[in-house]
Structure formats: structure tokens, C-alpha cells
Amino acid sequence: MPKTEHWGWYVERFAPTEEHHHAIGRVLYSGRSDFQQIAIIETEVFGKMLILDGDTQSSERDEHVYHETLVHPALAAAADRSNVLILGGGEGATLREVLRRPDVRLCTMVDIDGLVVDLAKRYLPEWSDGAFDDPRARVIIGDALAYLRDDREAYGAILSDLTEPLPDSPSHPLFNDAVFSLVKTRLAPGGIYALQASTAAIHNAALHCKMARTLRKHFRYVRSFFTHVPAFDTDWAFLACSDTVDVASTPAERIGEYCAGLRGTSAFYDAETHRRLFALPLYLRRMLAEEGEVF
Amino acid sequence: MPKTEHWGWYVERFAPTEEHHHAIGRVLYSGRSDFQQIAIIETEVFGKMLILDGDTQSSERDEHVYHETLVHPALAAAADRSNVLILGGGEGATLREVLRRPDVRLCTMVDIDGLVVDLAKRYLPEWSDGAFDDPRARVIIGDALAYLRDDREAYGAILSDLTEPLPDSPSHPLFNDAVFSLVKTRLAPGGIYALQASTAAIHNAALHCKMARTLRKHFRYVRSFFTHVPAFDTDWAFLACSDTVDVASTPAERIGEYCAGLRGTSAFYDAETHRRLFALPLYLRRMLAEEGEVF
Amino acid sequence: MPKTEHWGWYVERFAPTEEHHHAIGRVLYSGRSDFQQIAIIETEVFGKMLILDGDTQSSERDEHVYHETLVHPALAAAADRSNVLILGGGEGATLREVLRRPDVRLCTMVDIDGLVVDLAKRYLPEWSDGAFDDPRARVIIGDALAYLRDDREAYGAILSDLTEPLPDSPSHPLFNDAVFSLVKTRLAPGGIYALQASTAAIHNAALHCKMARTLRKHFRYVRSFFTHVPAFDTDWAFLACSDTVDVASTPAERIGEYCAGLRGTSAFYDAETHRRLFALPLYLRRMLAEEGEVF
Amino acid sequence: MPKTEHWGWYVERFAPTEEHHHAIGRVLYSGRSDFQQIAIIETEVFGKMLILDGDTQSSERDEHVYHETLVHPALAAAADRSNVLILGGGEGATLREVLRRPDVRLCTMVDIDGLVVDLAKRYLPEWSDGAFDDPRARVIIGDALAYLRDDREAYGAILSDLTEPLPDSPSHPLFNDAVFSLVKTRLAPGGIYALQASTAAIHNAALHCKMARTLRKHFRYVRSFFTHVPAFDTDWAFLACSDTVDVASTPAERIGEYCAGLRGTSAFYDAETHRRLFALPLYLRRMLAEEGEVF
């Protein structure tokens, strides 16, 4: 038998008939927390990858695309960035991006799975890049829903970096009207709620549209934006929700100033990228305009 | 042994360590022409797929994204659309999109592989949707390079819908300076040369940039644009080249009028999609600005 | 994207966690009959393969192992070989092996799926090797169970070459007490019923033992024998059942004479191979001796 | 995306066109020693598996088949079992089987890869089942070839449990005439050299026959024997070599007495299994009788 370079493959199944196979270079961690199955592997094309319950969460090579997209459109448009809340975000990369703005005074992150946070610190330090040690960071291991219920603060931006609300996932109880009402009460005036929101690919945008329809019951402006995230194998979508701010229309100058005020270097986001993110193709605008199911 | 729903899988290998597996519903055709290996299959998620030499060429579910993107930005910007040339394009979908404009009087398509054209007519009629029977269509089975050498016509747009210029592919001899010089001599004043140009994903945009750099030696305006094509598993890029027309800057009104003049219904392209296609993310603008290898 | 030699793979799933992947060279046929999904492919290692409902039925490279094992131990031991019945056996290879003995005067084969027989004649002629044209062959397309009910002949050997009796398979109604009683009434004195009977591998012999236990209710001698069939990816087992003949004990001289009387050349079976087939390893003898479930 | 039960698969490639995929339950270890890539995983069907350089070495579910076959035919036939040598055998299961005979006074095991031995002790204790702690066991981490050169002892049996002699494997320098001459000088009178010797499947027995032919230059009796090892996905062959003892012909009574003298319970080997192991099918006897390449 000829030697094989790679004995192991990570297989992500998108549908019973669609799989992506990544050859595993090294297994850095493989186990199970109280909440989910966790694996951290190295691959040649995507570098390190974090996998929860068999789904890619982020990869070393393109996590900047995902995390800059989740954070900066919302923060650039927010009226006040001094106090920011992250739901989920265990890798620490959403936290990292938020803290790049010096006008953020406090960023609270609530993730249910302390093991993911610990493993991210140990095996994926590039993701947080020191953010966990920033005095402005407050990391709470706990239930985001309980936190929202008990909390009394007002946030300029709430960023939801949870896994997809699939029936068995720990994030499932966090996607419904009651939660959105809670989120809304925690937003400061001019505040923005941004969340990752499934795919927006032409053959597979129904869940995204359902999420958007649901949120339109709660917020005046619910804007879809999306980008291809290579490690996700598809276009990934987000929603920016607010009663006062239309994130899709943030002026290029404001974005330019915002980006100039970021510490470090961005890989993906600036005013032109913003234009790309929010310019939706014909099929998606049509689908978003249709009536349909809500959560 | 439990019954399996699908006995066969189409495996597209992007790298020795990256594969996408599609379960095969039916094999409509599987064989080899004088030029390449050809397969036409049905899949649940992407519908029918055309596969040449193991690479997905187009899928029923998203071929509109690809073909509208290849054709319409160039045609919307072209000074004169009366005479159009397609290099490759065997499925007939590029031809279909071109002929949707009534002001196209003649569209010549030159594809080397007559078997692909015949199989597309038989198994993929939705792709050409009658275009092969349009009296304005002229289909030549032959070598695109020889055609360019012998031809004396002037085209308002030349659309290159060839497979990737990989070393063993039949399209490889069509990607070099000599060919681009030839192409240029065939463009009418205000003419545009548009071609598909590999991927533009953050981890894999080097070949696209090399293609762009090469073409900048020949044309004043060389504009990158790209979109995610789900069946390709990645962002797919194109280049629009001209000495007189900057396709990235076509005014929205012109695009609106152009689209209004198209027969039938578009799935993807209009002025807002155009804005998306040509608004390049930060990393790609940086990479395109760098010096580097050319063909 | 680098060219891949093979775009398609046949994936046989043995369990939700175990699969064998064979690269497809050519797809000779792929479709569905009234009874099952049928595929005929070419592979480099196994040559042509017949696949029914996702399960390998036989391969060009090793079908002799399977078919010689099904036929010759039974025929060598049978008191009278003049009249033989095959249940299933669509490929025609069981028929071929039976007809290699000149003392077979008539061999009736009853297969429910005429399309499998037609495809085998067209694409797998090496399997039947002319047997379908032998005047001693009688091929009936129909239900084996109905045939057994209506038939009044007496057979020196009945060979069951059906697919595994899985819940949804067309062979499922053919594995129960009523059928075995019917089979028994069709056996001539000294007659033998031989059938393929799942795997006998150390980790997966339970179904075989259940089949053996069930048949022991009907026959005095129920002998297990097995061999590795590479294309099946495992050891494959058979049962030889009779009230009068212990097939495991056929003397080597009798086998030698029997084999000498076969037309053509055998690849696998002779007296020493017989000894191998019926010498069961310790674990299997232990398992067969245990009480347990029956059909 | 639907949750997948298994995110990782172990893919063993037997040929560029043949692969077996095992879903990974847990990764117990994954790393690299100075000599080879090592992985220890759990699977549902085979239990724990040891994988070296991408090749299955043994599995919890069927390692008894392999190790009993390597050890007992040789030891049952050997004139004197007091002193036994194992080349390789890192898991400790060959050692375990040898030490089951009380008349073994010393068993020396020489394995080059101390990490494999350490990992086996930690993660695969069922394999050695205490054998490493037996006072009769002597484990040397070192080069088997150097050991053979320097050693002056005489062994009643030398058992070679090395990985396949593929060009890049650490066992490659151990398969040639010089080594066999050395081995021979270390055998006591009536001594036997037994080694694992590739596959004996009908489509893939050439390497085994080449190994047998090579050894026939050195020993009077070179006997092939083989069994299906499910985790290896194929029939696995061995060779028993001696100038004085024909292992194929060990009388059943001697085997019975030998087995009765083994501590603990066997899963696979006894006199009937011995008959099976050494009764070779027609194709293999034909191939072994042919002239051909040697090492």
C-alpha cells in the first residue's frame, strides 16, 4: 500500500449530498465540552480551523473576512461605541476587532462554553491576538439569554456571533422573538444589533430570508450584507438591525474616518468593501421582498 | 449492508488537500472527446452539472450567476453591441445571454469541442434555451486561436468563456501575449474584452492577479470583478479589458437602460449587482496593486 | 485547480461509519429498473463492477472466486446434477459455472429483474461467457417465489444467488421459513440447497449465524463456508443445506474427479480450496454453536 | 447545515483509485516520531486503531486474528520455544501471544520506535495485556538490523512483525538477502522464521509471491498462509520459513497439544484454523509456482 500523505480528513456535510473534505495536517484538539463536540485541526489551505459539532467556525486564513464583517459595519454606524456586547464569540476574534477602536471603553463577551474559550487561548492565540488580556475586555462564561435577562446596561452595539440556530445547537434558544425583544431593550439610542445570519447563496438563501423577516418584526431597519467566506464554502450573510440607523447607508466618509481610527491593519473592510457587502444581487433582493415563514 | 441512497459521488479536487463531494443522482453522460473528459450528472443541490476534466463548468442552479456576470457588464458598457464574439462557451449559455439584447445582430461562438456543444444541446437545453437556433447565432467548431488569426471582423465585445489556462487544458494556448494582441486587433473602437479569470478568494487570488497584470500590458483599463459561484465552491473572478472603456465605472442609469432592453428575466445582474461585482475588498485591491509575475 | 484523473467515485457504505471508495474509470450504465437502482462501472483495480442499490454484486477481477464458491461445492457433492435451479443470478456467471459440467442437462435460472439480465448480456459478457446461449439454459424473468410455488420439478441442486435479504431489497421476501419449506420440496433426493449468506468476518458474523440457525430448522446438514471476496471488502459466507449430504465432508477424490470433469479452467476451486472454504476459524465455530435469533 | 455525527474520517488509500474511509470517534493521539507518522483513533466498527504512516497496523476488534496467525503456527511447529525473537511488534500483542506459552523462557522484542511502544502502553493496553511487565519479556528500542548483526543468541522462532517493506518505510532495509542470511544464522536447529508478507488476494498477490520467491533462496521450506484481516480490508499473508520444519504440515494433534498449553483463551487459532490458513486456493498455488522477480 502506498503511503498517504494525510491519514485523516475533516468532512463538513452541508447536505446529505454535499460534503467538503479537508485533509488534516495535525489534530491540535479533539474532544467534547458540556455543550458541543470540539475539534481544532491544521490544514494546508486554511491553516488552523475550529470545528464545533462538525461545522467550521473559523479558519486562520480567512477569519479576518468573517470577523471584520461582523464587527465593523455595525461599529462604524453606531452612535456610541463606548459599550459593546458580544453574544458568543468564543475564539476571541470578534472581541479583538471591537477593541481595535480606542473609543470602545468596555466590551463584554458572554459565551456559554468556557472550554472553547480556553482552547482558543491555547491553540488559536492569533484569533484573539491579546484581546483577552485587554483591560477593556470582560469575558463571562455563561448563558447569553440569562445574561440578557439580568443585565441592565445599554450597549451601542450588540454583536451576535453564535453558531447557527439549528435544532440541537446551544444557540438555538437564542433565536426567537422573546430574545430579540430582550436584545432591543439593551440597545442604547442609535444602537445596532448585528448578527451572523446563515448563507445568502442563490440556491440556499431561504433561512437567511426567514431570519431577516423575523427581525423586521422588531426593528425598523434590517439590512442584509454578505461575503464569501472560503472556509465556510459559501457566501455568508449577516443582518444589521436598528430602529434608527440604516447601516447600509453609512456614508463612505464616515467609514473612512472610522477605519482610520482602528488600531492595526485591516485585511478586508473599508468603505469600498462596505459598498460591496451591502449591494445585494437581484435574486436576494427579490427573495427578501417576498412574504414567507418567520421564526 | 444498509442501502445507500447514492452510490456515486462527483469529487472535485481543488488542491491535494481540498475536495468537494457531490452525490450523483443520475449520470446523463460520461465519456471523452478528442480534447477532454466530459461528464454530465444530476445532483440534488445543484441540479444538472457539466464537468470537464474533473472541473465543474456550470450547474443548473447557478449558471445564471456566472453567465450573466461574464456577459452583461461588458455588453452594458460596450460602445456597439451589434457584433459579438464568444471564445469557448460550449454550453450555449453565454450565447443565450448575449442574444437577449435585440441590438446584437450577430454573435459568433468558436468552441473547439463539438461534442460538448452536441451534449449541451441534448442534455442541457436550459443552458442555451433556444439560442443555438437563433438566426443571429453563428457557431463554429474549431480552434479559437486559429479563428482569431484568420478572422477580419471587428467586435464590440469579445467574451472569453474558456476553461482555466492550466498546463494540460485545451485553453492553455489561449492565454498569452500573442493571443491578447490578436484579440485586441479584433476589437472595434469602444470594444471590450471580458474573460473569466480564476478565483479571487482571500487565500487564493494569486493566479487572478497574474492574469490581470498580464492583461495590463495590453489594455489601458483592466478591471477585476467577481462573485461567488456556489457550484465552483469559491468566488469566481473576471476581467474586463479595454483601451477606451472603464467597465467598473458604467453609470447606473446606463446599466438600468441596458437591462430594461434585455429580453426575458435576469436572475442576477442589474445596476446594484454591478456595484457589488466591481467593489473590490481591501485585500484584493492590495494584491492587484503589487508587482509580480506575468504570463 | 489541478486536473483530477477521476471525477467520479463509487462509494459503498457498509455502515454509517465505514465506506469503501472506488474511483470510477467509466460509467457503462446508470439507471433504475422496476426493482432496483443499477450501475455498471469500470474501475482500475476491480475492472467492471455491477452495483445494485449501492451494493457491489460482482467485479470482473474476482467474480470467479464468488461464483465458483457458490456453485462447485454444492454440485460436487450433489447426488444428481442433471437438473439445476438458480434463484437470482442475473449476471449469468452462476449459470456459466453450472453449465461447465456436461452432466448438467438443464439449468433453470429465475431472476426478477430482466433489465439486469439484459445489461449483463450487453456490458458484462465475460460473466456469462456464452451461457445464455447454451441450449441447456432456461432463463425465466419472474418472481422466484412464485416460480417455486408453481413449479413441480425436482432439482439436484438449488443455488440461491440473491442479493442480501435486507428490508427493502427485492430478495427480502425470499428469506423465511415458508420459502425454505418450498425449496425443500423442490430438492431431489440427495439434493443440495446452497445460498450466499452474508459475511463471516470476526466483527460482523451475526447475520450469517442467524441465517444458519434459521436453516437448521429445515435441513439436517447446514454447513457454513466462506472466502474473502476482495470487491466485497470482506469475507463472504455461504450455506450448503441438505438432509442427506454433508457438503463439508466431500472426499478430496470426489472433488478432484468433479473438477476434472469441468469444461474450461477454474481460477479458484479445487479440493484444497474446498478444504480451506469449510475449515472454519475458532470464533465462527463458537458463534455458530450459540443459540440465538432466527428469521 | 445539518449536524454531522462524525467530523473526521481516517482514509486509508490502497491505490490511487481505492480508499477505505473510517469515521473517527475520537483521536487518542496524532503526531510524528523520528521514524513515522502515528495516529491512534477510535472507530465504531473496529474499536481502537493504530495507524502508522497512513496504514492500519491493527484494530481492537480483529488484532487477535492477525497476532495469533503470526505467532502460533510458527511456535506450534518450532522444535524449541524457550527463546523467541520478535522484530518490530511495537503494540506488544505479538509479545503477548508468545508469552502465553509457559515454555517460553525469554522473548526479546526489538522495535526501532520507542514512541510507538510508549503510546501502545498508554492507549492500547489491551494489545499487550500485561506482556511488557512479564519478567520473560525483554524490550529493546533499537534497530532490528543492528541487533541481528551484533546478537549471538539462537532462537527457536524469529517473528517479523514489521510494517510493509515499502521504499520509505523504516522496515524497508530489513527485507533483503543480507538480512535473511543474518536471520538464518540466529535460528536454532529446528527454528522457524515467520513474517507477515503482504496480501494474498486474487487481484493483488504479486508482492507476496515475490517475497516468497526471495525467501526460497534461503530456506528449504517457505510456506504461505493467510487470513482475511477485516481492518486491513483484505486477505493478509504470512510466510513460515525453515530448513527443517514444514509448518504447513504440522499434525493436528501437535497443534491441539500446543493450544491446550496456551494460557488464556484464543479467539482464532486452533488445528482447524491452521488447516484453513495453509490450504491455499488454486490461484495462489499457481502464482507461487511461477518464476518471477525477487528482492
Molecular structure report:
Helix content of chain A is 30%, strand content 32%. Chain A is of the alpha/beta class. Chain A folds into two domains: 9-57, Spermidine synthase, tetramerisation domain (Spermidine Synthase, Chain: A, domain 2, Roll); 63-289, Rossmann fold (3-Layer(aba) Sandwich), CATH 3.40.50.150. Chain A has a seven-stranded mixed sheet. Chain A has a four-stranded antiparallel sheet with strand order 3-4-5-6, with helices on one face. In chain A, strands 1-2 form a two-stranded antiparallel ribbon. In chain A, helix 8 (252-260) packs across helix 9. The first copy, chain A, is globular and about 55 Å long. Strand 1 of chain A pairs antiparallel with strand 1 (8-15) of chain D.
